[in-house]
Amino acid sequence: MLDVQKIRKDFPILKREVNGKLLVYLDNAATSQTPKQVMDAIVDYYSNYNANIHRGVHTLSQEATDKYEAARHKIQNHFNAAESHEIIFTSGTTHSINLVANGFSTLLEKGDELLVSAMEHHSNIVPWQMLAERTGAILKVIPMNLEGELLMDKYDDLLSDKTRLVFCNHISNALGTINPIEEIIQKAHGVGAAVLIDGAQAAPHIKVDVQKLDIDFYTVSAHKMCGPTGVGMLYGKEEWLNKLPPYQGGGEMIAEVTFEKTTYAELPHKFEAGTPNICGGIAFGAALDYMNSIGFEAIAAYEHELLEYATQKLLDIDGLKIYGTAKNKTSVISFNIEGIHPYDIGTILDKLGIAVRTGHHCAQPIMDFYGIPGTVRASFCFYNTKKEVDALVAGVKRAVNMLL
Ligand code: PMP
């Protein structure tokens, strides 16, 4: 069991007021809040050992290098990667996906097929469209049903010996659906295709074992799991990372440079050009320590309880419709109320100190599928409480009374 009142004390921001009301923060799928343990790691870095890493002979540089590489090992252990050099520090999921998409431009031929799920964030669509334009590869979509579940029989039909890559999120940010990635991966491997799983929404809720699931590429943004913005990771199987060319050229990623020819550094440095977000990487490691100290099983169980409680309470409101009713889902509730624009509900909730997201959630194809401009999205974290859910429900009822 998780002690939510004790946990809340770790998050200073949860004490602040917004519009004269105690903040109720329910926009966790956009970014999570930061515990003081992670802030302490950031302050410690800038107070005590701020220096550029790798190659520095002085003490500060060595300390910063050790802590940065220790963070890489923490990430490796957390996701159970076989090698620490399979963990590439990036600025987040968007960067990770672009890195892989760029690399595949040297591996694809005209007519090769790429399969994308119908419920992707734009960052797992646009880089592949750009890749398809550059290479002549064809992008095909795995459709979904009204509950927000992928149609796996259609997936079977789409897979062929032309399929080179499949990309899909582990959990949808707009609907909360947990996708059957084990089956997706096994079937893709059956036709010799590689799989990239966008784990931006899953890593904050589920402990992922990349070896057990036989994942080729997995992407994470630290800011969605109690870490800072501007840092994340790409996990890639060594054999795949070795096949991909570097994404950016510059310092840190080279073995030797002459004006005639440059040779590249070994993994992971080949993909880490320039001075990285050193403090961010270290703080990412601190965020993983923090979440593991609570425990992912306890987190998942508690968030599921919040999801069920909130779903039931919200459905009591007349005219409220939830988008994304998959059997297997996490703590995201996307909804609309007949006759009211989501933006108006979000604005009234903000006046009550309640932060939710409104709009298309960077997933316009999902909104097109349902024929709506957007939704109101409440997304829960392990520091939220049932009392906060009650505040949300009361706020939505108030909005309905004012607007209808
Ligand atoms: N994929 C999913 C499923 C997401 O929820 C997000 C963030 N909303 C992203 C990708 C992009 O992450 P970032 O903006 O941190 O690169």
Model description:
The protein has 404 residues and is α/β, with parallel strands linked by helices. It folds into 2 domains: 133 residues, Aspartate Aminotransferase, domain 1, CATH 3.90.1150; 254 residues, 3-Layer(aba) Sandwich (Aspartate Aminotransferase, domain 2), CATH 3.40.640.10. The chain is 39% helix and 17% strand. The protein contains 13 helices and 17 strands. The chain has a 7-stranded mixed β-sheet, with helices on both faces. A hairpin with a 4-residue loop joins β11 and β12. The chain starts with a helix and ends with a helix. Bound molecules: 4'-deoxy-4'-aminopyridoxal-5'-phosphate.
Properties at a glance:
single chain, 404 residues, alpha/beta, Aspartate Aminotransferase, domain 1, binds 4'-deoxy-4'-aminopyridoxal-5'-phosphate
Give the SSE map.
Elements (H helix, E strand, L loop, with lengths): L3 H5 L8 E2 L2 E2 L1 E2 L10 H13 L10 H21 L7 E4 L2 H12 L8 E5 L8 H10 L2 E5 L9 H7 L4 E7 L11 H10 L3 E5 L18 E5 L10 E5 L1 H6 L10 E4 L4 E3 L13 H17 L1 H20 L4 E4 L8 E6 L4 H10 L2 E2 L1 E3 L4 H7 L4 E5 L6 H18 L1
Parallel strand pairs: 3-15, 5-6, 5-7, 7-8, 8-9
Antiparallel strand pairs: 1-2, 4-10, 9-10, 11-12, 13-14, 14-17, 16-17
Helix pairs in contact: 2-9, 3-9, 4-5, 10-13, 11-13
Bound molecules: 4'-deoxy-4'-aminopyridoxal-5'-phosphate (PMP).
4'-deoxy-4'-aminopyridoxal-5'-phosphate binds next to helix 4.
Function: Catalyzes the removal of elemental sulfur and selenium atoms from L-cysteine, L-cystine, L-selenocysteine, and L-selenocystine to produce L-alanine.
Enzyme class: transferase
Family: Belongs to the class-V pyridoxal-phosphate-dependent aminotransferase family. Csd subfamily.
